[in-house]
Structures
1.
Amino acid sequence: MACFWLNSQETRVKIPITEEQENTVFYIIQVFVGEIYWSVKHRYNDFYELNTKLVNDHGVAKDILPCKKLLRSKCPEFIENRRHGLEIYLQKVLKFLKLAMPRVFLEFLDFHLYDVYFILQSLALKFYSEADSYLSSAKTYNFTTLEVHAITKCCNTPLPAENTSDKRYDLTHVFDFSSQLNILYINGISGTYLRSIIKPNELMYDFKVFKKVNTLSLNEVCLESIKDLGQLRTTLKNLTIIKSNMTSLCQILQCDVLHKYTFDNAQVWNALTVMDLSSNCLTDIDPTISLTPNLEVLILDQNRFSSIPNLLQLEKLTRLSMCSNLITTCQEIHLRLGNIQHLNLSQNSITSLVGFSKLYSLVSLNLTANNIHDIEEIKYLSQLPCLEDLKLTGNNVSTIVDYRVKVLEYFGTRAEEICLDNEQPLQPELDKVSIRRALKILKEGSTPAILNTR
Amino acid sequence: MSGGPYNYSYIFKYIIIGDMGVGKSCLLHQFTEKKFMADCPHTIGVEFGTRIIDVCGQKIKLQIWDTAGQERFRAVTRSYYRGAAGALMVYDITRRSTYNHLSSWLTDTRNLTNPSTVIFLIGNKCDLEAQRDVTYEEASKFAEENGLMFVEASAKTGDNVEEAFLETAKKIYQSIQDGRLDLNAAESGVQHKPSTPGRNNLSSDNQGSKDNCSC
């Protein structure tokens, strides 16, 4: 990322080429700051407007801008001359304004998009007027990796505290805001940033200023760029890391530990109760899961699990979601999940429900879009005493004749308590269930208990 | 907009300076969190904290820059002096070397801040009376000679920590009222709350007293 104040001696501007678009000639300016560069496109009129402001407010000499031509010319020679003239103009102005860097000039060259200090100034301006409204409501804010890097960098680099006399641009506003934030979202930017060679996801950042954050959400970031995430161990309640190519839990839970899989008490994420690691590349849960003993909700949607992992260490876990994985078989899940109440296994390839028969705490089970063919499988769910919410749509079994009635029938007297596929059983369905049960009893030849007592 | 903690009329900017290990970060932590931070890590570059306080019936938000004491960060921390309304200069009463360096810290402060910046000298770790290396009288004399406010405090027990931050704010507030400190000057380190730009009426009411600050 560019840092003008550290590289002002190595800052250059060039106009190497021009470009014609819809009958207008654009000059492609390249700005070099140290090892970083980016390009900006302007037409002559933009230069003219800039120059007027610079002449009026910042003492730039009147006559250094190539003059306006009355006759619009498209001849290559003219454009080439003007390109050269504008290049020299920019170089002169940059040299002259290097120490002051007025806002109008740095915005003309897009410094506010690519430079640590000027990005922070733009944030400062925003928080100067809006911080209180963010903080008084949800205390939520979305930063990009570029911005959090700028904040991190600012703490560790000598920058001019205030080069501008305008208090709205005081960087303190950024730190003030960040230090009070509760919910922090960081969104990665993949590839290069806009028209620069900056790769935001490769920029390091830490969480030093975010002292009050209890909910952290990282979206499409590069895990290697995160420093000191561990300092949030005692405060973070809610952690979301999605689309970040995570292959192993220890990348996060032991991010700051050199020897993975050796544990001590200082590494425990005590406050963490909700963890969402959707859309990563996880295939298994490694032993580091023992560092989150207070986890209540775990979301592992869209990963690469082929079976249900062993989560018995999570004694407080009540909700597990493993949507869109590669799960085919589920055997004796109660030996892996224990006391689970809500289980979402939709969009997998589960064929048999035999493994579910002892999940006695289960309240809701989502099996949408799996490969359950045989209605007989439902009998494994029929003895779950707390089950209230069952979803089976998108399985072959849901297309058979009298599907709802047949499923409900398995639950016997509890049929009316089962909400199947988001619908409570209707009275006609319940009636049918009773009739079918009665017929079945007759068929089996045993006498219903009621008749026996007579 | 008048939600409790966001209702304040001024922002004062502070900076905390002093040698490594004198307890700058612990003082800040004690002041903002009211807790003592045992094994506090070395500050890298700068840290930041805020708290809203009440001075003479006015709610004031303190934005406090806590700087690294290590020499290698001096270039980083120097850039935070500008625009500070208050500077808390800390030494450790059990280590004379930290006291001996005060004059160099003071020179830095005087050079990099403006004349109206209030400088407050804090002798930290006064709970460690047995290991005392700098007497109260000596430091008190130093403070007097240089026109500094002075107190001995303990970030561990919390003794005098509040007082140091609050007295500094009071002094700054007085300067504003006396007209010695120009609110509109770029480097005064004092601002009106953003939502009330240009409000110069110091005696203006603070929207009633219904939202008493918790501090």
2.
Amino acid sequence: MDNNSQYLQMFFDESAEYIQMLNENILVLEQEPNNKEIINSVFRAAHSLKGMAATMGFDKLTDLTHKIENVLDKVRNDELVINEEMIDYLFAGFDLITTLVEDIKTKGEEASDISNYVEELKTYLAGDHTAEKEEVITKLDENFMIDLDNNEKNEIVNKMKETDYVYQVNTVLNEDSMLKSVRGYMVIKKATELGHVVKSKPSKEKIEDEDFGNEISLILVTSMDENAIIDEIEDIIDVQLVIIKQIEMVKSTKEKDNKSNSPENSSSKSNSKVKSFDVAPTVRVDINKLDNLMNMVGELLINKTRLEGLKVKSDIYQDILQQLDRVTMELHHVVMQIRMVPIGGIFNRFPRMLRDLSKELNKQIDLIIEGADTELDRSIIDELADPLVHILRNAADHGIESPEARQKKDKDAIGKILLSAYQKGSEIIIEVEDDGGGIDPDLMAEIAIEKGIATPEEIQSMEKKEKLNFIFHPGFSTSKEVTDVSGRGVGMDVVKRVVESLDGQVFIESEMDVGTRFTISLPLTLAITQALMVKIDEEVFAIPLSAISETLTVNPQNIRQVSGQDVIVLRESTIPIIEASKQLNLDVSYRDYINDLEIPIVIVNTGDKQVGLIVDELMNQQEIVIKSLGNYLIDAEHISGATIIGDGNVALILDVRNIA
Amino acid sequence: MLSRFHKSNKKENKNKVQEQFVVFNVGQEEFGVGIKQTREIINVSELTSIPNAPDFVRGVINLRGEIVPVVDLITRLSLSNSSYEMEEDKIIIVEFDESLIGMLVNDVKEIIRLNVDDINEAPKITRGINKDFIRGVGKLKDRLLILLNLKQILSEKEVQQLDELVLE
């Protein structure tokens, strides 16, 4: 039983990978229908999936993948042309595979019905979709198809530049030509001028000896396009017909070329090839084990801090402490690295989603992904998928206009959504930017009034930014009609909540008719961070350094008042100052600070503004291990967690994001 | 032989299903909590209070590296004539919803076995304690043991609902 569940887990993990691979590769295939390499990898993925399903005894899944494999086989053998309709069928099939796997996961059996799909597929295949082989090819004598051996393929690869194509050029000479060998020689010579001739059939020698029929085939590597080559060769006297066919070759790196160069060996090597889909050799580790490891590193760190607090006067003690410090730091660093995964893991599902969405919405949308290799803590990435789906759906549904509307505005009919991720200091920034219609702040304000979120008076004094921020308010949906895609009144508030639960922040910027940009900033890791320790009402609190812009002590004389609010002027900007104890509703008397000689203030970034937080005492800066307060205290305002400090006591972590 | 022994043993148990409870005091009252849910009993250590938390949460403690919230049972159960001494008090750590929660009590007395048959439903108001917080009343010779319903006591959502009920 245990064994079985272990295999089952492996099956789930691997099938998820294969399904993702299928989806990705089919998208590429839609763009490059002639890319044999891709067709082969798609085929292999489907085949492996089938094998796995059969081993595990999932009959429907085996049947379904088998059917899909058949289709792919036909594509591979040029019996089927790749068009949008077929791609749609394939996607529908992949979705069904996903559903079946999901069924197995949740219900333990393959509950969903696949017979409909299988029927549809059958009907589709029964129709006449066989590739119309170009007249050209059928005309050609099979003998004239040129086979290349590996050396010749390597030669092509070496000669090829990025812009080069590989063609097979078949030239048919006039049957009654008097000077066949001369004409043949001229064809070869011309081709040599146009590019690099890899091979010809018949060979040069045979042509010179006039030992050939009336057809010459050659493999030509050139940057010219097909028509230009035909024009050039047809100019030669006695040339009756020139037929040209492009041959797909993988161009970029040598490594890849080796793969494409040896299709003959593919059957014997297929196992290792399937493995090579994975980016790097990896070990699959249960995420819980990593969590445990991180917790233990955390405890080590706490104990190290406690040890430091002992202040023993001994050289050996100091020495050991330094060593311990180095080891814990490195251990922490390594564990953090292990937990980091590229954000591409969630990004790569979006091209497919956007393709489906644009069809559904009858819009043309181009999704551009940047920085997919940016790394984030695994636990953050897992949580991030849903918010990004919401934002992207919103961008596609509400942001990007219909092609007609776009043309009226003199925009490119194809809307663009840019999804990018990058690291900025100790933060990861994720941006979703569209070049759509933008959001009207006044419309937002109107709806906010309508829904009772704000009063007209409040709106009066609001800036554009604040009006736009209504989008994050629970129960706020601007969609005029509720669609399948978005506009269910949930979404953006969920985005905000999830991002904040990850200690991140989300901002919106929008310009009418120019576009909208959502920016999510997240901490690199959740578990351990640098913090400033402060004292508020005799208790120690930690403020994460990422939220602090600076600390200072202020003389009460330098405090000004602006409409009843105490402020300080710092390098020409006015910053409101508030008491931390007051924000925390602590039972102390407020505004005592005005009698102090020096007031310690922490300038924090809250939302997109700065606020000076008055504390009782600035203490030290140290590394803290962030611990959750548990579900039980999740609602405690302005407290995001707790940490254990040197003396073994608990210090609360101040959440300054919404503090003012 | 062995199998027969097992059988007879089982039979005996069937007639008298027993449960073990940790008995503790808050003020004058005696309470019980199922031993299966109880993780450990500790002395009161430094408590860190949490601003903006529900009033019945006394604070959090560091239990060997884990942050554990501590519930003030006097406030929670509205036991008006009781108070905490702190130095003498104990914290019972219970496992609830996969997390640990501490209950601040005056004293932990003993562990007892109760026949399930001897557990009765709580009367509507048991010495001023809301019925929802009580799982039942255990009869123990001449003593009455109030068995707590941790689910109600430890989940905040229920409180809000209860408050709303009271308001209505």
3.
Amino acid sequence: MKRALTNPSFLLGAGIVLLVVAAAVFAPALAPHQPTAANLRARLAAPFQPAYLLGADAIGRDILSRIIFGARISLVVGVASVAIAAVIGTIIGLLAGYFGGVLDAVLMRLADIQLAFPFILLAITVIAVIGPGLWKLILVMAFAQWVQYARIVRGQVLSIRETDYVQAAASLGAGHARIVVRHILLNALTPVTVLATLGIANNILLEAGLTFLGLGVDPTIPSWGGMLADGRNYIERAWWVSTFPGLAITVTVLGFNLLGDWLRDTLDPRLQT
Amino acid sequence: MLRYLLRRLFQSIFVLIGITLFVSFTIRLSGDPAVAMFQGASAPTAEQLATIRKQLGTDRPFLVQYGAFLAGLVHGDLGTSFRSGQAVSSAVASRFPATLALALTSLLLSLALAIPLGVIAARRRGSGSDLAIRVFSLLGLSFPNFWLGIMLILIFAVKLRWLPPSGYSGPDSLVLPALTLGLILASTTTRLVRSSLLDVLGEQYVTTARSKGIGEQRVLYRHALRTALIPIVTYIGLQFGALLGGVVIVEQVFAWPGLGSLALNAISFRDYPTLQGTITVLAIFIAAINLVVDLSYALLDPRIRYA
Amino acid sequence: MKKRILALVAAAILGFAFAQPSGTLTIAQAQDPQSWDPIDTFYLAWGMIGSSIFDGLVHRDLNMKIGPGLATSWEWTDASNSRLRFHLRQGVTFQDGEPFNADAVKFTFDRLLGPEGAKGPQQANYTSIDHVEVVDPYTVDFVMKSPDPVLITKLAGYGAMIVPPKYVTDNPPETFNKMPIGTGPFKVTEYVPDDHLTLVANPDYWGGAPKVAKVIFRFIPEPSTRVAELQAGRADIVQGVPISLADSVSKTAGVKLEAVGSPTVNALRFNTCLAPTDNLKVREAIAHAVDAQGIIDSILQGYGIPIASFQSSMSLGYDPNLKPYSYDLELAKKLLQEAGVAAGAPISIDVIGTDATNLEVAQAVASELEAVGLKPTLGTHETNTYYNDLVPKNTVGNLYYSGWGGWTLDFDNTAYLLYHTGQFWNPCYSNAKLDALLEEERATYDQAKRETILQQIAGIEHDDLIDLPLYQSKNLWGVADRVQGFVAPADDRNDLTNVSVTN
């Protein structure tokens, strides 16, 4: 931990993530305006003035307030989708890797199916059926991404299963559940954590992409991706509408990625050169 | 080797059936193509809808429709588009080159950027250039692709007028869309090259090679980089589906007439045969890429043999 | 003398040279309709191009005036209006040389009204016609099944475009879909789906050869990319400039922005079967809470016209005396209180997620409803799901977006489909008096009487608040300075015969 506190990657990454989390938690106290309150007279108000520090958007909403509240949505989208995908993927990967055989074959073919299906097309098809919405979006992302986790965990399990200490535990009469949880799961968690940190960043961007295609969440809910997609036509005219949410995404993604990098460098013993 | 190929082929068929079954089923839940034909123009009567459904064959049970699709697939027949009346196979064939050109160019572009940058970063780990490269690669991961595309259009097509903003009209029209995808892909790949190379450089046989007095350049390029490429190639294979997903959005931004726009339109028209056909071809393509990836391990690492 | 003759000859040669079509015009539009057969179509995107390939029996010009097209004149043959006779233009050929005559007209309508037409959406617009009879090679009779006061207008576009019998019969259906042939001023030479369609001038066009030699229509879905093509000097005309980009276009050198009032009205329809909007008082409160003029001035940048009923000012049935509800927050709050709607009551709004301007308008409306104490939520949907699933099944929210107009410029189109009991897109609202008026207006050819009835219908729509019309939209076109003679069409159907380009 001492080493972490002197590591610039960790400091910067953790600092950014903490800042974003704080913005999300204390949004109502921090935001100068209601994030959904339109003011048609303040349409595209310029930034750096007391009333609108970061300017106003096309329907006169305060961009700063929307960015602060937007932290909630972006975090929920990023963290929840990754958490669901990681949990499902880990369980499937464990089962497939540990028990092998037919179960493994079937689960891994399911994974192949997912991998061969371009995500955006999957998302559009599924959303056309179940309709749009924040949690549906999160579920679609999780549904498409469990595979990455399953494959990594399975790989880990295969390599750990044959190690001496797992063999030893088995010969001492430890049950399946105990072996899986105590000996294998804990080891497999490292790469999952790393992948998940990077996945959070990725999914914040995916939400923006889906909004671009018209499949995003309720546009009155401030989400960074939605703000960016809505602001793309104002780039020449009112740069602040998309630049500030874009910066928020960039900084947050940077934060999660730095943290992910640091985690990988720290947790992956092979990189301790 | 032959047994391995056969096994892979068998697995691919399983994957293909899974995907087509999923797509066919889901798209049929999403809406009725007979109704879709009337979008905003006039209101259909029940008899009219029934006639059109019969005509399109969508009145039959799902499994019958799916069976017909599979039967056609075996003969290379992907059915007829509900919307344009054209054979889906010819529509897919005419769109495939555009998507392939875009996907492969952006892939090559990303490798051309990522390998040198990754090597530099790994060799000078901790230096200023390492830091700069890592920041570059992190930045590339923090832009949505549509945003990067629009910015590139504004800079290189509108302000500088160096390149056409959109369309599929020649090599110059390929630059901006390929750059959009390539830059984003290069970010991840650069990181991977760096870490993978660092891994390999710490391994036994590299140390051995070094101790034998083999020059550093030779160690790096003949031994280390080759091995380090394995996870990178794996990653690219696994990410190809994601890359093609990115292609869908980039095709939309750049009005690129590829499979992505074909599939998007097919979904909005509820054109079942076109969507099934496009996804099938994409899936075959992705499966083929992954097979090539697996086979290329043997080239990269002589220790790997196929049983 | 000699000099004068020489000058005359030179002038004649120059004049002749000038009359030759020349130059290439590139037009970028959002959507590729995917099939060019007139009976398959339902898209304005088809009309933008179809009007250059095909002609109808009657022609509507850029001032929206009906005049002769492939028919030079027409009249009812009987007092009961059961037989409409058309005298056809002679010496017209299709672009492949096939002659245009009475047989072609009969073939076109047999096809539209028969099994081939039943596969497409256009047939439903022409079911008042029983059949077409050939009187002589240049005379046809339309035998009517039921009165259709909008028939003449409908013969000017879309499903009623005259198609070549031999070309259609001799080729498989996909050939005509892909390479259509008509009698129009331009002929299709190349079609690459989702990329472009190339037209060349038809020098033998009966209305005179067009001025431009070649027109390339490019299909570019993303609006900012479309505008970039114009700014980069690679497209001459751009359709569908979003309001958000209007400023960027008008500030670009060498390009101008043209705005034209369109027949489309953007409205929020009320779900009158869903509480609390089943209560007229609540609907009135919402109407008073929405600042339509404010939305037009700010979000629409003035590119919108205030409107009080679900039809444009060009439409038959438009009543200039009908005024939109006043913007009055206090009244709105009072009405809500009277209706017993508590503060914070949820109100759902559904919109299509792909149109940026509509989304902005919907968000402004949501914010205004929030200001009177309601708690709005906004759902965004894919176009197809929206029109074909949510609306017909009435699974939409309290308010739902609708953009409707109809190129026929007649309120009948909107009012019948949206207000008559049991219509596909009207799963909920029912009003016996309104139904009777709609049926009455459809049964007469007396346009003055129809106008009165349609205005009455608009009055009921307004008083009963079946929907809340927000504004009549203006279509924005970006046009490069090198283009001359382009008039932005109010009904989206381009007439490019008088357009020319300089280099």
4.
Amino acid sequence: MIRLEGVTRRYGEKTAVDELSFEVAEGEVCVLIGPSGCGKTTTLRMINRLIEPTGGRILIEGRDIMSLPVEELRRGLGYVIQSIGLFPHLTVAGNISVVPRLLGWDKARMAARADELLRLVGLPPEAYRDKYPRQLSGGEAQRVGVARALAADPPVLLMDEPFGAVDPLNRERLQTEFARIQRELRKTVIFVTHDIDEAIRLADKIAIMRDGKLQQFASPEELLNHPANKFVHDFVGADRALKRLVRVKVSDVMRSPATVFANAGEIGFREAAGRRRFTYVLEPDGRLLGWIDTHDLDQGLSAEEAITLVDAGEASVGPDTSLRDALSRMLGLGFRSIAVTDDGCRLIGEVTFSSVEAAMAEGDEHIAAPAEADAG
Amino acid sequence: MTPHRRRNAALTVAGALAFAVLVSAPSLWEAALRPLFPQLRDVLMPRDTLATFVLQHLALVGISSGLTIVVGVPLGIWVTRVGGRDFRPFVVAATDLGQTFPPVAVLALAMPVLGFGFWPTIVALFIYGLFPVVSGTIAGIESVPAPVVDAARGMGMSPTQVLFRAELPLAARMILSGIRTSMAINIGTATVGAAIGTGGLGVPIIGGLAVQNMAYVLEGALPAALLAVLADAMLAQVEAAVTVRSD
């Protein structure tokens, strides 16, 4: 879909990007990452010709990007930068309609498209379409930025540190939403970041760069398990086992828990509790109410007394949560397992500490010290 | 339009109407100035009516400021483009020099070339008023956040579209405030044109100074001051209209 062949950019004596070659397949998210000054942003900006390469060539769907008029090329490549790139003099709908207007869409079609995209990024159109960027929070502005890039439905999205200016909590939310949107739309995405966690979370392929040179081009799993050289090994960090958990979703490892309905009565409770140490107690409609500990029943407490009530929002995770987040929730709450609930707080499974350990151990055999291919 | 802005617009229109009535009613001036200067034979310059002086003045200011805007804004834009960037220091220095040069001196220099009358004054006012417009335009365009321009280009706007859809709307306020400054200066400075027979509100001022008639001086100076205030208020309305959406 997008192929770079020996792409080079020189500034006088300095080489910002040096003989870069890789290929991103259709529908994949490719994250360019590396320390500042490694050439990742230059690479991105060469794809939409905001910077002209001094050597090599870039092909999109087999066509050399230099063969298209530059404006036409750019209108087919959605471009997302940090939220400050929104036009302050245009409303949210006006910002989203920039490219459609350039393409000459009629008003009704632009308005309908703006509303559709606002819904897609989770902003109710009635409340947001007439606001100005200054009236938005950082996270909202960033969502509008993504909506704007998607306006003309380009097959490719170029994203330059899109979530870099957002606080960590909102960044994680935006990442989750971006992953959801991407699952739905299957764009080919080139995404620049300096945040390795963000890269591991979102990427299908990661291109690690340093001093303009490609260090490794691989899937996140491959990168974590087989860093190509010492630089990659160090850049990924010592907590690679933990990072691998970012790639595993709760729904991949959850098991079905022991449950009992709150209205099962004393006998029902004792029967259910006999099977495992902890049993989840559910409302008749399946919503999580709490749990009972078999030890408490054994010590003569009545079923009523033995129930520990919980706030389902606090003490559970969603099926799309990463295993690392689930683990940190468990550690925070001091539990050996955590309930998995759907949007309606209904129990759908549980994740245990041992299943997290199993996921961590997977691939551990690969994590020996990497070969010292790179002396730096 | 907010109620606040509607009220300001109404006030400005009312001010303009009041001004028009005031300068076209000589008996009013006569009645006001006569008690102040009982010993003078004339309190209004007999050469022309006040309304004529005002109209001449408006023509001077209108044409010179019009030229200033038509030349100054494109000049300011040009030196922020890739092609004109190298000329920026030269243009800024030259327009700055134009303003430090006293208009009377410009008149004196323009006279041998353009002769007496209207056009030398227009040239002097044009040169004198250029700097605020050019520097306001440059400052306005340079105040546009770089990421906005980057996004505009990255989304596929042509250089002209970037200018008209992103840069100028955001720079409009500073460009207009440059024009405001330039016009206020112009209205005052245009009175010197009378020295070389251009007409306008400078005629009673300079004539009054020559014959020691302070009533004549007031007849020119008061409307000129009111005109400056009025023009400023009108441009403030335009400024408010174009910037209500931008910040």
